[in-house]
Amino acid sequence: MDPPYWMCPEGKSWRPVDDGDVVFEPRENCELSLDLKAGVTVSVANKPYVTPEAIEEEMETLSALHPDLSLAEIGVTAEGRRILALETATREETILINATMQPAEPAARPVLAAFYALTDRSALSHSLRERFQFCFVPKPNPDGSYHGMSCTNGESEVPMFSFGRHLEGELAPEETTAFWRYAEELKPTGHVEFHTHY
Ligand SMILES: [Zn+2]
User: Most-buried pick from 12, 56, 136, 190 (CB within 10 A)?
Assistant: First the structure.
C-alpha cells in the first residue's frame, strides 16, 4: 500500500514514518528504516489502528456509561475473542453499522464515531434513536486484527468473502456465520459498512 506508513512505540501514539525513512516499490514491497533504542518494541502498519482489546474495553465502558444501551455477544472466534455489538433501544426498524472484516482497513474508529454522534444528546440524534434502533459492530474480525492480517482471520480464512459459502450450506468462517446470523435476526432497514482503504 502507498505511504504513509505508521509506527507506534509501545505505550505511545501512532505517528507517520518520515518520508526519508521509507523506500516504497509500488505493488512490490516497502522498507522502513526505524532508529530505535535497544529494547523498545514498536508496531508498524499501513494505517494507524486500535487493538481489538482496546475496542472491547471501550465498548464495555460505553455500555456502562449508557445504561439504556446493551452489549450483545454475537459470536466467538476460533481463538476465543468475542464479536460484540453495541445496541441502542429496540425499535421497529434497525440500522446496522459495522467495520469491514478486512483488518488492513481498520474501521472501528469510524463505527464508534457514528456511535458518539448518535449518543450526543442532540435533538437530531434523539429523534433518530426514537425512529431507529442502531446496532454497531466495530470489530467483526478480532482475530485478524489481533494478528495484523490483511483480509484473513486467525485461521487463514477470508470471512469477508465467505457469505456465499455460508448461504450454500458449506462450512464458513465463524465471523461470517456469526455476522450473517446477527444481520438475519435484525433484518436492518439500513446497513452501513465502513472501509478505510480499498
Ligand atoms: Zn474494503
Answer: 136
Distance 41 CA to ligand 1 centre (A): 29
Distance from C-alpha of 152 to C-alpha of 147, rounded to nearest angstrom: 9
What pLDDT does 198 receive? 65
User: In angstroms, what is the span from residue 104 Cα to ligand 1's centroid?
Assistant: 8
Instruction: Output the CA 67–ligand 1 centroid distance in Å.
Output: 33
pLDDT digits (tens, 9 = 90+) for 41-77: 999 998 888 999 999 999 999 999 999 999 999 999 9
User: Cα angle vertex 16, ends 198, 60, to 5°?
Assistant: 70
Single pTM value for the model = 0.91
**In the block, which residue shows the cell 459492530?**
137
Distance between Cα 38 and ligand 1 center (Å): 37
Cell 459459502: give the residue: 165
Distance (Å) from CA 158 to ligand 1 centroid: 12
Distance 35 CA to ligand 1 centre (A): 32
Number of Cβ within a 10 Å radius of residue 38: 4
CA gap 169, 37 in Å, rounded = 52
Given its phi and psi angles, is residue 54 left (phi above 0), alpha (psi -120 to 50 degrees) or beta? alpha
Find out whether 158 and 173 touch, Cβ atoms under 8 Å.
yes
Cell of residue 133, nine digits: 434502533
